[in-house]
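User: Fold both of these, please.

Assistant: Here is the first one.
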Amino acid sequence: MFSTSLSLAALALAFVAPSAVNAHGYIHNYEIDGKNYSGWLPFTDPYLSPIPSRIERNIPDDGPVLDVTSPDLACNKGGETGAKSVAPVTAGSQITFDWQEWPADHLGPVSTYMAACNGDCVSFDATKAKWFKIDAAGYNDKVWASTQLIDNGFKWTSTIPSELKAGEYLVRHEIVALHDAGQPQFYPSCAQVKVSGSGTQVPSGASLVSIPGLYTGFTFPDIWDDNFKSFTIPGPAVAFTGSSSGSEQSDPAPSSTHASSTHAPTSSAASHAASSTQVHTSAVTSAQESATPAAASSVHTSSTVAASKPSSTGTGRCSSKRSRRRGMVKRHVSHLAKRHH
């Protein structure tokens, strides 16, 4: 009996450990116009019967897209195909992206884009989209936007421009993690919404960008370098700046004006990072797109820690060559307090 219990415990740890150590992140829930919608839950939704109808396009897991030239950069792998549902939203209202967890050392910018589906989003191919930026934040007052997201309970809130013409749109939300110097990690997700209101404007010209193409010619910095002091947000200027909710967290870069997101920090920059462990269980209930998600029960604990250069997780996605990493760790540790507090 004792050996059987040990075997079961070891088996449970074998399943839990990869989730705890290698966890990255994805959007678990959307609050749109005051109503909750579950995101696509890649570790549970594919195994439910029937497969739930979501407003978010499928993502394969919690890992990143690494190739800036890949079509997967738009809406993640598999995201070129439409989801089954579309969420109604009023122009001028807010949409909140709830990640529920994000590694504190995965520092980087956060942005939200939209693209007109030119009809029905369910059948719209995301690789044909032309995107416009509705908010973005990078590195301001020595604090990364990803840290602001963590401090705000792993949430980020954007405003649908009040001037925007009614119709169906994709909303693309993304964190770019820059902890692995020379290999930025992109975490995009796309939700489908139907905008209503009296707006008549549609962005055009320089306000639009193709994805892939957004990061063409852009070099992400080595954030651990001693000379790193500022970050220019890539991409076009924010469209419809008149609809800004007044966030002051966007970088004062020529390519980016005031963001329309709200993400006020809830803790000081000196203790801004949190490490998280989330354990998914097999107890699952199906959540339809109009319900508060309960697709997977979880145990979630967090503690405040200082952000530091990560060690290898063994996945191959969060580590560059060992020689480069070893050479950078000593330099980072000596400047951690100066540059990240």
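And the second sequence with its predicted structure:
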Amino acid sequence: MASSSQTKFATRPFQLIETPIHAQKCSKPYDPYLEAASIMVLGHNVLIRGLNSIMLQAPHIPPSQPTHFVMYALTWSELLTHHHTMEEEKLFPAIERITGEKGIMGGEVEEHHAFLPGLKAYTTYLMRCKEGKEGFDGEELNKIISTFAPTLHAHMSTEISTLLSLQRFGPSLPLLDLISTEAAKTPMYVSFTGGTPFFFRNLDLDFEDGLWADWPEVPGVVWWVLQRSVCAVKGGWWEFASCDKDGKLRELNYLGDE
């Protein structure tokens, strides 16, 4: 059972995924397939922390805060939508083209389709709240989340095994380069003052004892600007985030009497 202190962080109800490199106690230089799969894990864990922070705090949002919380929750949807769209339109087709195996990532696409209806319902509900067509109800939001989150979490876990199975193609498939290239493009496709800050305010630099503290490679001055200037534009949104401006996991602000 989690301790009372652990329950204050966005490490539940959905478990974070361990990176293959940490699980196998690897040393540098890393196997490129293990590193590629580990980078995908780090991206998935940002989404998991974000989801956990939404679920845990939704029932306890005070009347003065629903607008900011609704926008925070919608930004999670924006980031997730970009992630699976990038995979289907860029990453998976590239893997098919290079390996010559059409449909090799078809199972992953089917898993996307399994959680998309629930994600659409989630986004629709929050948009109605944003537009004033419906009053925000945290319990109602969590009911919607419960219809697709277990499937989403299972997919984010099994996708890592699928990526690792591509090791059979050896150096002919530059999986690490493909994933790193698409990851670097993320700021181009999400809102600069929304999706980008959401990512960095749910990125725990101490994860796995700081093994990934240098990922992604962001110069110190850029990190400072992102965390202290860009995040300040919509600062009320990040009151609900799982990590602070220094990339440290923090206690969530709205947990009721837990």
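The mean pLDDT is 94.
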